[in-house]
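ok trying this again, last paste got cut off
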Amino acid sequence: MKTKTAKKLPPVNRYIPKKEYWLYSFGALGQGMIYSTMSSYVSDFYTNVLQLPLLFVLLLMLFARIWDAVNDPMMVMIVDSKTTKWGKMKPYIIFTAIPIGVLTFLMFYYPDISRTNLMIYAAAVYVLWGMIYTVSDVPFWSLPNAMTPNPDERSSLISTSRTLNGIGSALPMLLFFILGFVLPKVAANANPIEMNKLKYICIAVVSSVIGIILFVNSYFHIKERVVIPAKKRVPGEKSRIGRIFSCRPLMLVVISGVLSSGRYMIQAASLHVARYSFYIGPKLTSDMPIEMRLANIEKSIASVNTIFLICAAVGSFGAMLCMPIFTKRFNYKQIVIFTCIAGFAASIVTTLVGWYVSLYACIPFILISSIPIGVLNIASYAMIGDSLDYMEWKTGFRDTALGSACQSFVNKLDNALATTGIILMYMLIGLDPSKMLSSEVIVAATEIAVGQRFAMFSLVSIVPGVSMLLCSIPIFFYDLVGEKREKVTVGLAAARKERGVVVE
């Protein structure tokens, strides 16, 4: 069914040169490398390498998100209220790049200190990383709203930059796969803990250095063209927070985002599933030398993890690349609902085929179930941009940073919920990671109880599917599409012209 369009619209200019368009997008690629290093591996590093208590990791994730609920709005108020000679959003790219890189390194550094001090260290670095990342992330993803007033051009920029951000997210995973085969050869005498320490510090250093270079480079090529004069709030008008909560389209997107948290499981839990659900390789025998046993297990973990991540990458990136084609025929609401329902159906098949047939047989269905990941990765940002247009049209206020903060908070909350789900699963099935990597044991997935293996597999099969089905429900009520969206675009342009807003 084609989206209805208005009969006649005034011509809309395009504002962003190709060089600026692509260098902003490559800045997003760099940011994706850094964020993925944290989101993909921090749970495994804390539980299997640092071997921190599961309850501590669970409480840390919850506390960090509670703190984000306080910290993020404070950051938003600063961004929305301050404009420097370098711009409103741009300066934060420069100021936060080095701290984020250093903290990413420290997050995967294993200091030789007591268990108590190690817990304090991990908590401090994790919370501080989240705070600085917010200072960086909110302005960066607010920039498309400042770079062009054209909603279609903004959507195109978001689509491209989110696609490259996703590619950046896959690069640390590629490095993990390579190191899984290289390290057992160059560090054959290292025990499993030492080998994983080396693996993670290599990933953190490479991702941080390349990511920061690309991220900082975008600063020198971006221009903020849409500068909305500050409007004074008169008595009786809603506050900034009040405007956000009363913007129905925005709240529907935010609620949908929270319900979609399970989609992060494929990325966050694949390594745990590779450790404890599947084994690919030569048969492990009791008389096998410990070094060979370790090398085979490490290669299996790298291979299984890569199978899941490549499937997720192909499905999600394919969807992101096709989004410009999809949006020519369908609106974001239609695309999100259809792909999420299809993803749910595919996740059921993945669960059954992957467990009762083979891991390889379920690969096509993992691909299909990953399509909504790419769709939501683009659609949520575009729909928030449209919601901010709607709110400005209705109220005269442009709360760009607060809208972006909603998305940033949802992303961090979703990642924390995914990690929390992994920790809860460990606790529920009685699987203790601290006993799995010791040099005396080195347990393979085939030596774990069948029920425990299936429970871990469900984290990347049925759990993401149920989450996608739930997240489609609020979108049924999202109506900022078709003629209504075009009416907002035309009305907002007229309102800005009346207020004397000039776009360079």
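PB: full thing came through this time. The chain has one domain: 26-225+247-499.
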